[in-house]
Design goal:
This protein is an all-alpha fold. The chain has helices at residues 3-10, 26-39, 44-47, 56-78, 114-129, 147-168, 170-175, 179-195, 201-204, 208-215. It contains ten helices and no strands. Zn(2+) binds at residues 82, 87, 164, 169.
Length: 216
Amino acid sequence: MSTALKQVFNKDRTFRPKRKFEPGTQRFELHKKAQASLNAGLDLKQAVQLPHGEDLNDWVAVHVVDFFNRINLIYGTISDSCTDQTCPVMSGGPKYEYRWQDEQKYKKPTAVSAPKYMSLLMDWIEVQINNEHIFPTNVGTPFPKTFMQVAKKILSRLFRVFVHVYIHHFDRVSQMGAEAHVNTCYKHFYNFVTEFSLIDHKELEPLKEMTSRMCH
């Protein structure tokens, strides 16, 4: 990972507070393991593979939190050019529109502006990853049976952030010199979700052409 890339990912221009892994916990060790394989310049396809003897739920949990933090940061860098006026709907080009739905206020899929969608999404993910019953931090506390289902939903929705950023705000990303950083994060994310089949192929459709150029 280049120094510039480290600076972008370590900058504190995050959309909201980060969920940190506490040093000394098993997750923290796994997080370090994941970071080490990236820093060693390992091929991303290899870097995402489940380390020998590790639990898949743990590995997925660590990556979900990491991707949440990094994608948050990416959106944070372009958020000044993503407004209710420029992006009145959360879309990925003319063919794809994403509506928001949750278990609380938005019981039916509802059309909202892109910044509103991002805000609802990041709040919703934060609630999930800070919920000890879904993402237990104590070693030995089992993951719930629904964990993978929740992780898949989080990752599918985070993918939509990439779709919106790439299709509607890539000029801003390039302007800020962040193109290489965003591409690396995307490749890492894509390799991870395909390694463990965490996102439906239908969801990946909007960036299919770009992905085949970038990740194969």
